[in-house]
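task queued by scheduler; priority normal; single chain, no ligands, no partner chains; default sampling; output format set to structure tokens
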Amino acid sequence: MIEFLKKYKAFGIGLIIVPFFYILDYLGVIILPSEMNTDDIFIFAIWWLLLSLVIHNFSFFIQKKKTMLRLFGLLILFVLVLLYDSNKSIPDNPITICFLLIFYLGLAFTLFPGFFKKYQYYILGAYTLISIHFTYLRLSAPNFEYYVEHDKTFALLLFLVPIPVLIILFFYEQWKWLKTLEADKSQAELELLKTQVNPHFFFNTLNNLYSLTVKHSDEAPKVILKLSEMMRYSIYEGKKDWVPLKDEVIYLQNYLDLHQIRYRKKVDISFNHHIDENDQVAPLLFIILLENALKHGVESLSDNAYIRIDLSSANGHLKFSLQNNFDPAEVSEASGIGLNNLKQRLKLIYPNKHTLSILAKDDVFRVELTVEHND
């Protein structure tokens, strides 16, 4: 609560407008009514809001010389209009009202330039018509008493009619801007997460390829071919929002084939998949789970290593499950980085449409992922 009050203290300071009006009344520049009616309260609220916004954004205005000059010019205009009105002593002087309207619109343009420019034709058009209507009512009345009795309330209230509409539009624009900003942030974060998948994998694969070339292994050309196929998929397909699930299966199979080429020990790997070839899925979604199983499971064991993978899709639901054994003594905290990456991607791509279950017990690691995928 204290932080909130500190952040918006300008709206409390803005209440200095109350004694300011009474000072002007004392000096004879304006005449305040003995009893405040609804119109007076509404006008006071507008002045309080405008002054508070200026105070709240004062540090911003200081950095903008043009904005400060505009505010200073508007303040001079306001003072001159009040002096003119006090000298003429004409109640509801159309000239005074028009210049005050220019002051208010200029202040709105200074405080909210982007919003004002977007709706400038509607704002200027509406207030031009209202000003013409007010001037007609004020000048066409047979006398001031007739105007006060029949036209004044309606004529002045017309100036207030567009304000609630503009306020609603303003907050709607802010809401749209925040939603767009949130979407852009999510997209940027998702792209960053995608780029984090590929370099880690290729770094490990190039290390494997290096060891094979040093040994002049006949398997090196096969590794290069597999790596080339996977790089093509990662670079071109990985940029897409969705890819055919069958292509993701081929990518995983290539990954497994590549690792089986380099392993000299016996590894029991099974990959069962039953999918609809028309199903779509986010690219590179399962590779982190498989990479963890190989890096922190198979590579930590000298023998009896295994990996069981099952992938199925039906009726708009996709299920991926993986089980592997590992050496508990070789578990690294770094293995959690990839899983955190996956969780964040799932949160961005499948919000409230996925479940991820991870269980490590004794020497067995199990993970199950289900998503409602796009058709």
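post-processing summary
- The chain has 16 helices and seven strands.
- The mean pLDDT is 79.
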